[in-house]
Design goal:
The chain is α/β, with parallel strands linked by helices and 218 residues long. It has nine helices and nine strands. The protein has two domains: 150 residues, 3-Layer(aba) Sandwich (Alpha/beta knot); 58 residues, tRNA(m1g37)methyltransferase, domain 2 (Trp Operon Repressor, Chain A, Orthogonal Bundle). Strand 8 and strand 9 form a beta hairpin. The chain is elongated, with a radius of gyration of 22 Å. The structure holds S-adenosylmethionine.
């Protein structure tokens, strides 16, 4: 998958690219490209923002700046999905992640200040996505959330088995993951459930499914 992120701070993504699962698929299943709006802005002195028409607090990321960045990267009008990250967008869920992970090419637009000139969302983006019902200072953390969530759905990012049995997976009927335990088997009188020590994998799977169902009802 080619995943392009447009941002004002490409270097902020350095940490993410060193972490698994992103690091595991970079250069193979994932071609992550970072673009700075400032590199292609048509305005002087690297300007990218401006005051809102009608007045009001804060600055907006200009539509011509975002358009110039997209034109420089793609030439013509892109025919793949262009996702604007905004708190007013479609709420991110695992189903949305699965859907986006199927794309061969995907672009994420991150804003800051008071957000995008609305014409970016209306005319340049095909989708608007929110990572949750709260407001962050910029779209870089949301973009990283999406890159990470998508990367772990790409082949080779994580062990197939752990992906199949994790929270929201089809194997667990979209529910929560079952509880995990490791050594010691008894700590301060808090024992590990006996079934997990039984070695009976049929019973262990059954117990795990039941635990997942119970947790998901909470
Ligand atoms: C300070 S926010 C703008 C908030 C906007 N003025 C409002 O009231 O909805 C700046 C940028 O951060 C990003 N952002 C903030 N919260 C987000 C969220 N929950 N999901 C996705 N992007 C978010 C978006 O790119 C947004 O344009």
């Amino acid at each position: 998958m080619q995943l392009d992120v447009f941002t004002l701070v490409p270097h902020a993504f350095a940490w993410l690219t060193e972490q698994r699962p992103v690091a595991s698929v970079l250069g193979t299943e994932l071609d992550l490209r970072l673009f700075s709006y400032r590199d292609t802005t048509p305005l002087r002195a690297g300007q990218v923002d401006d005051e809102p028409y009608g007045g009001g607090a804060g600055m907006l990321l200009r539509v011509d700046v975002v358009a110039a960045a997209l034109d420089a990267a793609y030439g013509a009008v892109p025919d793949h999905r262009i996702v604007a990250l905004t708190p007013q967008g479609r709420q991110l869920t695992q189903d949305v992640v699965e859907e986006l992970a199927q794309e061969e090419r995907l672009t994420l637009l991150s804003a800051r200040f008071e957000g995008f000139d609305e014409r970016v969302v209306q005319h340049l983006a095909s989708d608007a996505i929110s990572i949750g019902p709260y407001v962050l200072s910029n779209g870089d953390l949301p973009a990283m959330v999406l890159v990470d969530a998508i990367a772990r759905r790409l082949p080779g990012a994580i062990r197939e088995e752990s992906g199949a049995w994790e929270t929201f997976s089809a194997e667990l009927e979209g529910g929560f993951e079952y509880p995990h335990y490791t050594r010691p088997a008894d700590f301060r009188g808090w024992p590990v459930p006996e079934v997990l020590l039984s070695g009976d994998h049929g019973k262990i799977d059954e117990w795990r499914r039941e635990q997942s169902r119970r947790r998901s009802l909470l």
